[in-house]
Design a protein that fits this description.
511 residues, alpha/beta, five-stranded parallel β-sheet, 17% strand, globular
């Protein structure tokens, strides 16, 4: 492999931020550039404008996991074109009371601890030593990583990578870039060339909503009635409304628990009987929640005000006001259309150790995993990629890389579970640390040995959330009992929870 001197990083979220430092500490590269499509660093941890409304423009494409299409590229570059109007799913799932959903230590990078600050609501829920942090703390933490050591000068904000390809003659990766001009009416297009590319763009931007007959008609007939958990902001809009939630992984339980004392009773929660391995079904044990089987179809009519949801058990629910889908996200790469075509079961094949593209390891991925110890695992991946690109280590033969993937498919399956580190966190961390080795002559970011107490803290944080749900459920049962007995409850006693306990899918470290 020819020496790597210039590297492009796609994305300035948590994965991109730690990549910058990992690459810089190798002291081997002349150029490190970061391209971020939003106005500042933070990835899914920055807030959208208050008046912004998220869109679900095509339910068929959302269900087919193909909604985020590549933009047409101008025939000649550089170029100035009318401003793009194609929807790009660049919003986040941030809402005002959002807190992290895993232990702050598990989220922090090894050399950069999270600040010891907690909101009053966090302390009320989990105590003065709560391991969780408010989203603003996380946003500031990530931005501070890039606002140091001159790294801020390497980042180009409001810049979208629209296409990545490798020039066969120069063997350079060519990035086609687009940036809106200041007046907002036109876009500037240009290209830049690099020896290597690190994709750190995340995969929690494009909502996935399963194909549901009649859903698109309902959304059209009754605007605002169909949402994805990514658009969740506040429970008040659902007060006394007939509401259906769909999903039982991360956002589903959070939103269901938040609405159980707010929405019309009962709150209808569509679950399949499979729950997240960290949290089980505790959030759904609230007495105001009625669990429902999957939706078969929906019938709506604006003229007659019909809004009826039908379920697999033959039952139906009429006059539905809201359906909230907490059904996860689709991994899309509109900037790499040929590679994106190979994505199957929402995972990208041919990534050795979830990092190196087998066909050309000068294309690396950081963050292409699921289920736990994010952000910390991003650091291990970033350091491994940096060591390789600096020429300090080599990868095993292709046959070994292929066998690694085959063995993992046999063990985990050929879908999202393939990318899940749970429950084998220590094994993965230690394998990457061994591959990366120690810094050479003081050059490179060191990786500490995985400690078993990391996992203990990680698990303990989950138990805190379960305990919160249990308390809330018991308080709700007591309210129901008091109500049946005709006993008034004093103001402030057994107060219902009116806000979600944690984040929708895509924000924290679980997914």
């Amino acid at each position: 492999m020819a020496p790597i001197k210039s590297i492009a990083i796609i994305g300035a979220g948590p994965a991109g931020a730690i990549c910058v430092d990992a690459l810089a500490q190798e002291q081997e590269f002349d150029t490190i550039r970061v391209f971020e499509r939003r106005e500042k660093a933070g990835g899914c941890w920055i807030e959208d404008p208050k008046d912004h409304v998220q869109q679900l423009p095509n339910f068929e494409k959302l269900a087919a996991r193909a909604p985020d299409e590549t933009l047409p590229i101008p025939s000649e570059l550089p170029a100035i074109t009318p401003h793009n109007t194609q929807y790009r799913y660049s919003e986040t799932s941030i809402y005002p009371t959002l807190e992290t959903n895993i232990d702050a230590f598990a989220m922090s990078f090894s050399q950069e601890p999270f600040p010891e600050e907690r909101t009053p609501l966090n302390i009320q829920r989990h105590g003065v030593n709560s391991p969780f942090r408010h989203w603003k703390t996380v946003e500031r933490y990530l931005q501070d990583l890039l606002n140091r050591r001159g790294y801020q000068d390497w980042v180009s904000y409001n810049t979208t990578v629209e296409l990545v390809h490798k020039d066969k003659e120069t063997r350079k990766w060519i990035l086609t870039l687009r940036q809106p001009l200041e007046h907002g009416k036109e876009d500037k297009w240009w290209t830049e060339a690099f020896d290597a590319v690190v994709v750190a763009a995340g995969h929690y931007s494009v909502p996935y909503i399963p194909l549901t007959p009649g859903l698109a008609d309902l959304a059209q007939d009754f605007p605002g009635s169909v949402e994805h958990s990514k658009a969740w902001r506040n429970p008040e809009k659902y007060r006394n409304k007939r509401t259906v939630t769909v999903g039982a992984s991360i956002s589903g339980p959070d939103i269901a628990y938040a609405l159980a004392d707010i929405a019309e009773t009962p709150l209808h929660c569509v679950v399949r009987g499979k729950y997240h391995p960290y949290f089980f079904d505790f959030a759904f044990q609230h007495p105001n929640i009625l669990r429902r089987p999957p939706i078969t179809h929906i019938i709506s009519n604006r003229e007659t005000d019909e809004r009826t949801v039908f379920f697999e058990d033959g039952t139906k629910l009429e006059k539905v006001d809201h359906i909230i889908f907490g059904t996860g996200y689709t991994w899309t790469m509109p900037f790499f259309p040929e590679l994106a075509k190979t994505i199957r079961n929402n995972r990208l094949p041919n990534l050795y150790q979830h990092v190196f593209w087998r066909e050309d390891p000068t294309l690396c991925f950081v963050g292409a995993i699921a289920a736990g110890f994010t952000f910390k695992v991003f650091e291990w991946q970033a350091v491994l990629a940096a060591r390789f690109l600096a020429g300090r280590i080599t990868l095993p033969p292709l046959s070994v890389q292929i066998k690694w993937e085959e063995d993992r498919i046999a063990h985990k399956g050929d879908g999202v579970p393939f990318t899940a580190l749970y429950p084998d966190f220590e094994e993965y961390f230690e394998e990457l640390r061994a591959m990366a080795g120690e810094p050479t002559d003081g050059k490179g970011r060191p990786l500490p040995k995985f400690c078993k107490w990391w996992r203990q803290g990680f698990d303990s944080a989950h138990l805190l959330r379960i305990a919160m749900w249990k308390r809330g459920n018991e308080e709700a049962r007591e309210r129901v009992r008091k109500g049946k007995e005709g006993v008034s409850v004093k103001d402030g006693l057994l107060k219902p929870t009116s806000e979600p306990s944690s984040l929708p899918v895509g924000g924290g470290g679980l997914v």
